[in-house]
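Give me structure tokens for this 196-residue protein.
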Amino acid sequence: MTTAPDRAPLTATMRERVVDAAVALTTEVGWAQVTMARIADRVGVSRQTVYNEVGTKPGLAEAMILHELDRFLGVVNVAFDDAPTDLVGAIRGATRGVLELAQDNPLLHAVVSATHGADTELLPLLTTHAESLLAAAKIVIKDRIEPYALALDDEHLEAAIDMVVRVVLSHVMQPSASPADTSDDIAWIAARVLRP
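Here you go.
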């Protein structure tokens, strides 16, 4: 179902509606100003309903992060589905899709601005969950790479996946070129690492 970027799907669950409202408020007024009452007003439910869906504010933060991670990993999965016999092409497509999504992602922009001192209360969102997000991304990439014929032992494959994921994430956080150019560069590196 296609929806306007600022509206939740008509079939969104209450949790999705709460998370979408929290993302919108975070980008509009900053994480420090997000309260369960403001989210409840935005969604049109009681504050207790918001607490029932996400628990505490840290629980809300985690739900927001996981929601965004799902969106980014969805782009990765589409790219691998589109290139079932071309691993480098899949990496290129996944990288480009992730970087294009990152360009217009208001929550990501809010988190990145927090790293530059704009909203210090957002910093824990980045630091507390960074390792688990990285681990989740690496698991998905490893699962997607397994069907391709690679002559790498497990240790070197893990290192290659770690390298690709970390390089892509560094460009998500601080882009240095267009998504197309960056994805070409990362695909070039991946081709040399993954092909013996």
